[in-house]
Amino acid sequence: MITKHLVVDAQNAWGEGIVKIGKVFTEKGDYKAAAEEHIHEFYNYQQGEVLFKPTLTSERQFRLDFEGALSYFVGGNEDYPEDHGFAIKPWSNVQWENIGTKIIGDMGVAMGNYFFTPAEGGDDVKVEYSFAYTVNADGKLKIVLHDSHLPYTPVV
Known about the structure:
- This protein has 3 helices and 5 strands, in the order ααβαββββ.
- The chain is globular and about 40 Å long.
- It has a single domain (4-149), classed as Nuclear Transport Factor 2, Chain: A.
- The protein has helices at 4-26, 31-42, 66-74; strands spanning 51-53, 91-104, 107-118, 125-135, 141-149.
- It is α+β, with helices and mostly antiparallel strands.
- The N and C termini lie far apart (47 Å).
């Protein structure tokens, strides 16, 4: 059964995974393998499409398969030339601010802001998100919808 507490735990673990990918990258390790592990751990591509709309995309902004998600996190895929590796920026922290979480049957949905702290210093990057989670065949909470984008900035 999905609970709000499980959703928060999954969010925190996801953020730690993003930080880990960047750390492996800066230490000259196999960051692609770290990203693959992250995607397998948190996303439900094993059971079909995941509705993934990453933050910094405009050309091929929807990623329904594993390869599209991997490209976003680590870059280097010629099918996605705008990807520069979001997870290898790198980041030192991810902080979540849930505005609301709904549990509806076998699905949990959360919406809010998350803040990425650049490892090199500087201001946090605020990103808006909506995530939906289901429980996979092994009983683990997995992402089936990941929609994130930069907040609207009105033209002055």
